[in-house]
Write a structure and sequence with these properties.
The complex is a heterodimer of chains A (377) and B (585).
Chain A: E1 14-23, E2 26-36, E3 41-45, H1 52-60, E4 67-72, E5 75-79, E6 84-85, E7 93-96, H2 108-113, H3 123-136, H4 152-164, E8 170-174, H5 182-199, E9 202-207, H6 210-216, E10 219-224, E11 227-232, H7 234-239, H8 244-249, E12 253-263, E13 270-276, E14 279-287, E15 296-302, E16 307-310, E17 320-331, E18 336-342, E19 345-351, E20 362-367, E21 373-375
Parallel strand pairs in A: 3-9, 3-10, 7-8, 8-9, 14-21
Antiparallel strand pairs in A: 1-2, 1-4, 4-5, 5-6, 10-11, 12-13, 12-15, 13-14, 15-21, 16-20, 17-18, 17-20, 18-19
Helix pairs in contact in A: 3-4
Chain B: H1 21-28, H2 31-57, E1 60-62, E2 68-70, H3 73-80, H4 82-115, H5 121-133, H6 136-147, H7 153-162, H8 174-199, H9 202-210, H10 215-244, H11 247-252, H12 261-270, H13 276-304, H14 324-351, H15 368-376, H16 378-410, H17 417-424, H18 432-443, H19 452-475, H20 480-488, H21 493-521, H22 525-530, H23 538-548, H24 551-584
Antiparallel strand pairs in B: 1-2
Classes of the chains: A alpha+beta (377), B mainly alpha (585).
């Protein structure tokens, strides 16, 4: 079907094809394409204003895209060039909103049963179904309470029950956990993931919280300035960022400008000259497949991938070793954050509590070439 | 999940099914677009048609009975005619005076009632808003009964008991107009200022106090500057309302030939051979100034609309006035006295005396005046029926229209929604008499001239935007996601409207209904040019009583109108209070 064979309707349950959306001067979504197989959990991740929410709302039909096409389970829902713009209520999705959007003038049961109007159920069947779904989200016993009497976390569960009760084709989540406190958020995201896997509903999830994205997703799409930066499973996004933005946005990393000096034939290793403050060091790293000798790039080492050695210890064979002076040592509870001053640049690293090097002491930062990623800017 | 790693553009057809395209053509037209588009179009036409008529007529001069030519003659006439120049001057003076009066009382009372520990605040807060609902026209009549030279009750009392001249108070003239308009526009400033003060973060004041500044310094250096945008916008609205006010100058100015532009326009239109073109020129001049003020106001409000949002929910600490709080209460009671107690009191006294002989006679209490105006004078009894009909039906239609227009402006992506917003903000700046003349010039060429429904349509076009604000105020606090959640559950436009939007904006709808009911029930400047026999309304009938009937009958009729207004306002207070309590439990 497709000319270059990447996408076909048999493979993609949700197909987003080169969609664009402009708000006045800003391009909110810039030529975004991806497909999602049935039952998968996809997360759109990025800083605020990156276009993730607009993309989600375009799938829902709350935003009208300027061009491109969207189809859900084989039926076209958005195709402005051909005048197709199915209204949201006909797209058959469930959505969980950031503000919960639980209707304050209804009880829990009325909220949840709202989407069942087309199911033509008897009163008893409907109540039975509402009860079943509420049990699923852990809200049994709250069925007849006014929605406003619930806590934030409970309201979020009502919103979730309301979105899944009519068994929609896809579930859309718009930063659903960002209004909850940290503890509850951590618990909810695990529950959410379990529920989604049990129900097998294809889901698209928007968040700016990379940890959340790591936990819930099969696939993560990192976005910035309306464009897709990288698509991949969470581990790939974390271990093999496609560019400087992704490396910087996901996790904590030391990033320095560098110039690629020599790429090995195998493309597994490259020498790079990294600028650290007013000096520069030569490191061996793992080059991104698009880089070649002479390119300006970014060298990126994650804080937890750096080992801190005392000045007289030697680094493992083949590792990079950078000498410096310990600037600051902060006990973070389960680990220790060090700042190593190299020339006038700062190298930040995270070590187990067993590592004890005093502030002001000479020390060596050691990291394997495997963890020294050279990525395009 | 291999396919998810594909970010390269897909091919021409992209694997997307094309079968849905046919269905798509229909799916582009949605019921909400049709409804919102139609209602916006109708309202915009209803607003623009009279305005355009006035503007265009002002450039025509009648040469013979049937032919007119384009000319600036009307404006030349307007700017060289001494009477019109006087009226213009009077309008400016009266507007400045009334605005200054309203600003002084409005800001002072708002500060006392919101930010201090003045005793009896809760009652005062209710009393201070009462004049907002009562008719300024009735207020002007009441003040003639209080302070007309010789006959006025205050003059009578001063003469009898204090040995003052019985001409000591004289309500007729520019000062009297400023006095009554000032009283009746005070609540506008009061309401807007107290809203601003209530929303203010008390930490802003507290940090001033913690820096060692006292009450007065904090008020002048922090509180008032922060409330200035709201006060200023209240002042502009008051100025516009004053400039367009009709009933008050008609009652207090016209008898001594102190005309304002509004009364002058009425006089020119009401002549045996009306000069509509000249009246249109005067109306255009007045409307251009007031509309400019409205735009100034709009610009100010739009500019700061994103910065005033502050979290409420915690009680700001009150400023302790010490002994001065009794002075504050006395000050507020003075306002209550001149704005509510004296006008309503004199009306009540006169209305229950069959013959008023200059003072109240408790032995002669009778309800004959009430019976007479309700049962025996055809014009007044028809006026009650017609006004009630217009108010109830008009307010009900108005609320629906207001909701749909608010939705169009703030919720839809309709192409012309900015324009709709713009056009519906115009009528606030168009003086009633001017708007009414525009409607008259159109209606007079149709068989519907003088029909009751023409009045209703004119009311709707002129006042609906005020109701729209009440609705929009609530709609903007309702998260868009609440409506989108309904859509995501498969509810269409109508189900979402009925099951989510309307229940959530109900407080705004009730407030808008009450406001429109009150405005329609007491409406004078539009009605006076459009009502004919068969379409009498209360305020016009009241004016006729004022001209021809006894003061007792006039007072009785004014009391009936005020009573109906107060009844609805009180009912509204109960509804909203019951609702607020219901939400707590």
């Amino acid at each position: 079907m497709s000319v270059n064979g990447h996408v076909s309707s048999d493979e993609g349950f949700l197909v987003i094809d080169r969609i664009n959306k402009q708000f006045k001067e800003t391009k909110a979504v810039d030529n975004v394409s991806f497909t999602l197989a049935k039952g998968q959990f996809l997360t759109l991740l990025g800083p605020s204003g990156c276009g993730k929410t607009t993309t989600l709302r375009s799938i829902a039909g709350f935003e009208t895209i300027d061009s491109g096409r969207i189809s859900i389970d084989g039926s076209l829902v958005s195709d402005p060039t051909n005048g197709v713009n199915i209204p949201p209520e006909k797209r058959n999705f469930g959505m969980v909103f950031q503000s919960y959007a639980v209707w304050p003038h209804m009880t829990v049961a009325e909220n949840v049963a709202y989407g069942l109007h087309k199911a033509k159920l008897s009163r008893g069947d409907q109540r039975e179904r509402v009860q079943r779904v509420l049990a699923m989200v852990g809200l049994s016993g709250q069925i007849d309470r006014p929605a406003t009497m619930l806590s934030g976390g409970q309201q979020q569960r009502v919103a979730l029950a309301r979105a899944i009760v009519y068994e929609p084709k896809i579930l859309l989540f718009d930063e659903p956990l960002s209004n909850l406190d940290a503890k509850l958020r951590e618990r909810m995201r695990i529950e959410l993931r379990r529920l989604q896997a049990d129900l097998g509903i294809t889901s698209v999830y928007v968040t700016h919280d990379q940890e959340e994205a790591m936990v819930v997703s099969d696939t993560v799409i990192v976005m910035n300035f309306g464009e897709i930066q990288q698509i991949g499973p969470p581990t790939e996004i974390y271990d093999r960022p496609a560019n400087r933005f992704v490396a910087d946005f996901i996790g904590a990393a030391n990033i320095f400008d560098c110039v690629i000096r020599d790429v090995e034939a195998s493309r597994e290793r490259a020498q790079a000259e990294a600028r650290l403050g007013n000096g520069s060091v030569t490191v061996v790293g793992l080059p991104h497949h698009t880089l070649k000798s002479g390119d300006e790039a970014a060298m990126c080492v994650r804080n937890e991938n750096i080992q801190l050695l005392e000045a007289n210890q030697s680094a493992p064979e083949g590792w990079n070793a950078i000498k410096g002076r310990v600037g600051q040592r902060i006990n973070m509870g389960s680990f220790i954050d060090y700042t190593l001053m190299v020339n006038d640049a700062e190298l930040r690293l995270r070590t187990p509590r067993s590592v004890t090097v005093a502030e002001g002491q000479e020390a060596v930062a050691a990291f394997s070439p495997e963890h020294c990623l050279c990525v395009p800017n | 999940m291999a396919q998810a790693t594909d970010i390269t553009p897909t091919g021409e057809t992209g694997g997307l099914p094309n079968g849905a395209a046919k269905q798509g053509v229909l799916s582009r037209i949605r019921p909400e677009h049709v409804i919102q588009g139609l209602i916006s179009l109708i309202i915009c036409i209803l607003i623009l048609a009279p305005v355009v008529t006035i503007l265009s007529r002002s450039f025509f001069v009648e040469v013979t009975r049937d032919t007119s030519v384009v000319s600036l003659q009307n404006f030349v006439k307007a700017f060289t005619n001494d009477a019109i120049l006087d009226a213009t001057f009077n309008t400016v003076i009266v507007s400045i005076g009334s605005t200054a009066f309203a600003m002084f009382f409005g800001v002072a009372l708002a500060w006392l009632c919101v930010r201090t520990d003045m005793p009896g605040k809760r009652f005062m807060n209710v009393f201070n808003t009462i004049p907002f609902y009562l008719s300024p026209f009735v207020g002007a009549i009441a003040w003639t009964y209080l302070a007309a030279p010789r006959a006025g009750y205050l003059n009578h009392l001063g003469f009898e008991y204090l040995g003052m001249s019985n001409r000591f108070f004289d309500i007729y003239g520019l000062l009297g107009i400023m006095w009554v308009q000032g009283i009746f526009f005070t609540p506008i400033v009061y309401l807007m200022t107290s809203a601003a003060l209530e929303q203010m973060d008390p930490a802003l004041e507290e940090s001033s106090r913690s820096c060692g500044r006292g009450i007065a310094a904090t008020m002048f250096k922090v509180t008032l500057p922060l409330a200035t945008p709201s006060i200023l916008s209240a002042v502009i609205l008051t100025f516009v309302s004053s400039a367009g006010e009709f009933g008050v100058p008609l009652t207090l100015g016209t008898p001594r030939h102190n005309e304002t532009l509004s009364t002058m326009i009425y006089e020119v239109v009401n002549r045996d051979t009306p000069d509509y073109n000249l009246a249109a020129a005067m109306g255009s001049i007045l409307a251009v100034v007031t509309i400019a003020c409205v735009f100034l106001h709009r610009w100010m409000v739009l500019r700061r609309s994103f910065t005033t949002v502050t979290g409420r929910g915690y009680r700001p600490s009150l400023i302790k006035l010490g002994g001065w709080r009794w002075v504050g209460l006395a000050f507020n009671l003075v306002f209550f006295l001149i704005a509510v107690f004296l006008p309503l009191g004199i009306m009540l006294l006169q209305s229950i005396q069959e013959v008023w002989l200059g003072s109240f006679n408790p032995g002669e209490v009778s309800f004959a005046n009430y019976l007479h105006v309700v049962n025996y004078i055809p014009e007044t009894s028809a006026g009650i029926k017609n006004s009630l009909l217009l108010a109830i039906v008009g307010a009900s239609i108005g609320v629906i229209v207001a909701l749909l227009i608010a939705q169009t402006i703030y919720r839809s992506n309709l192409a012309g929604r900015r324009l709709v917003d713009f056009i519906t903000s115009l009528p606030v700046g168009i003086p009633g008499v001017v708007f009414s003349m525009g409607v008259l010039l159109i209606a007079i060429r149709t068989p519907f001239y003088g029909a009751l429904f023409v009045l209703g349509i004119a009311y709707l076009a002129r006042y609906m935007p005020l109701g729209q604000r009440s609705v929009a105020g609530v709609l903007l606090t309702v998260s868009r996601e609440l409506e989108e959640a309904a859509r995501s559950c498969g509810a269409g436009y109508f189900r979402t409207l009925h099951s989510v939007t309307i229940p959530l904006v109900k407080p705004g709808l009730i407030a808008a209904w009450m406001l429109l009911f009150v405005l329609f029930l007491r409406e004078l400047p539009i009605s006076i040019l459009l009502s004919q026999s068969g379409s009498e309304v209360m305020s016009v009938a009241l004016l006729r009583l004022l001209e021809h009937a006894t003061s007792g009958e006039t007072a009785a009729y004014a009391m009936i109108q005020s009573g109906m207004i107060l009844a609805v306002v009180i009912l509204f207070q109960f509804i909203t209070r019951a609702k607020a309590e219901g939400n707590v439990t």
